[in-house]
Prior knowledge:
It contains five helices and no strands. With 179 residues, it is mainly α. It has one domain. Helix 1 (2-29) packs antiparallel against helix 2, helix 3 packs antiparallel against helix 4 (109-134) and helix 4 packs antiparallel against helix 5 (139-167). The longest helix has 37 residues, at 38-74.
Amino acid sequence: MKKYIYITFSFLLALVVFGIYNESNNDKIASQPQASSPQSILVSIYKDVQWGANVQKHLTILTTDFNNVSNAANNSNYAELAACTQYTINHTQKAIEENDQYKVSTQLQEAQKEWRMALQDYNSAGKFLFQVANETKSDNERFVNFKQAATLSNSGTSHLKRMSESLGINLSLNLNSTL
């Protein structure tokens, strides 16, 4: 797992440095003054890497949450499902709050936006699954909420894929099978 973290950080850093280098060269060619000092570029790269580390941390936590939710749902263990979905709700909310504290470079803003939308969808999916786990209603009503949770989970995974595409990396995502 650490190998993938290092690869992700290295690639993220390379993308940022390459993007800044290309912008710097384009500025020099156009004879425009350099607006960014080397120190501000390094600070920007550092903030981007910090954000990437935060994403990786939460991806690890959420992958565990999704696996636990999947196991509980597959075993029709509604008490365990309620507990696991509550963890997912809490973890996605914390990830959203932390994500909102990062100011990333323009090169990563689209990825950050997709990450946030993925987290919001996973949070909503968790809320629907929590209802499923706690409902004493008919099987039909339980199915409707479960279907809504699956739709939101799939939407979250789509945002996560778009985030990885905007970063130019290939995350091995097998999250659609969790619901």
